[in-house]
Design brief:
homodimer; alpha/beta; DNA-binding
DNA sequence: ACATCATTCAATAAACTAATTGATTGATTA
DNA sequence: TAATCAATCAATTAGTTTATTGAATGATGT
């Protein structure tokens, strides 16, 4: 076997990962991904002291996850170039997978013979173009606010039972949540079908959509 | 604005990232991804003491990146469930993007009017089924050895000039490397075209292929 | 030019992480 | 049942990383 992987790229990968290895930095990165923001605002959002936030932000910048520009007195941080969100999405998906695994649901839903045959992103895009589909985001409100598929309706799973009336009767409904390992949309589809509605799952969730570079909508 | 992201998932994400935040652990994970292996072998491959390797491996296991099983006296580590390779691929791609950026090549290749119109994975799969395509992996040999697209020929970019004779004359050649931000395959295509061969780039690289869950080939 | 304001820098103490050593576990073979 | 062997655990030391403080930038607006 050759001398395995180039050690230098390993070190670079590890450095990138370590930069994301602190909850405050991940939080800051999320806040930046929502919208370009000055340091003070970010510190407030993340609940950090100014100097502390500044240092974390500089770490993120050194790693290339964010960029800055000056606007008058303030320095605005924005998302950097490159596949930053894909990376963050990958982490989020793995975290989501682990949670699902803990609840011992993954195995069940894979074992389940009718996997509710989810709809792929490609098919969804086609269906959306035709207009015969209602997109339903069943994640909690704050996650929806941070970004969702264009035109998606938000009814968190917990509220779904009580808000069935808000959904169109004739149309096909496509529910999605955090990804293939997240059970929210599966539960939603089961619930909707029981109520006599035509519902399917999106195979992949919001992070995946984001990672694929497709357009998203954000709350104001 | 609502209370932003759930702090708990942020902590979990950060923990995952921190686990990948050490070159030795990334190296171990790569070695494990190649093949199920016992601790001793992994320690040797990564150049670590046994106890040290064991500790790193346990970190990886705690995070869910790897799993273990016993086989006689030895304990074999294998890749865990969930989108581990997608995550690692995401990191690799971001690292690759940064390198390209440093060389100030990304901007150029995006600015370049004819982006060498790359071929998509879907199209490649179709073409491969027809058999009229030669797949060319232009990454260094050791990277190729760790895994490559099924049936791909390996000629590292540095050797390409001298080994043009190994390529079929009539067939379309599809070159790939580490991903959309890697310049190896672009350079290769340019070189091949100059030599009168029909060549195109794969839009996405090996890590992306891996992340998409498609079949790969490994050296023995 | 001066005062102002957002941000960064520098220095410190506290907390955490990594590598080494040697002891321990737990399954296998004789 | 004892010897063996792979792997893990425990404890130590050295090295990093984090949050805090207060001082230093550096562009703005009067």
């Amino acid at each position: 076997m050759s001398d395995s992987i180039q050690p230098q790229i390993l070190v670079e990968i590890a450095e990138l990962a370590r930069t994301l290895g602190h909850a405050h930095r991940v939080a800051l990165l999320c806040h930046i991904s929502e919208e370009e923001r000055p340091v003070e605002k970010l510190a407030e959002l993340a609940g950090l002291s100014l100097a502390n936030a500044s240092q974390h932000l500089q770490n993120l910048k050194r790693a290339g996850f964010v960029d800055t520009r000056r606007d008058g007195k303030r320095i605005l941080y924005r998302l950097g170039g490159g596949p930053v969100m894909a990376l963050l999405g990958g982490l989020q998906q793995f975290a989501e997978f682990k949670r699902a695994e803990l609840r011992q649901v993954v195995v069940d839903s894979f074992a389940q013979p009718s996997r509710l045959h989810g709809i792929s992103r490609e098919e969804l895009l086609l269906r959306l173009a035709d207009g015969g589909v209602t997109l339903l985001d069943v994640r909690p409100e704050h996650e929806y606010a941070l970004g969702h598929l264009p035109g998606a309706l938000n009814i968190p799973l917990e509220e779904l039972q009580g808000r069935l009336g808000e959904l169109p009767q004739g149309q096909q409904i496509v529910a999605y949540c955090r990804g293939p390992y997240c059970v929210l949309s599966r539960d939603a589809v089961t619930m909707l079908r029981v109520s006599g509605l035509k519902a399917r799952c999106l195979e992949s969730g919001y992070p995946d959509w984001l990672a694929a570079g497709l357009k998203v909508e954000k709350a104001n």
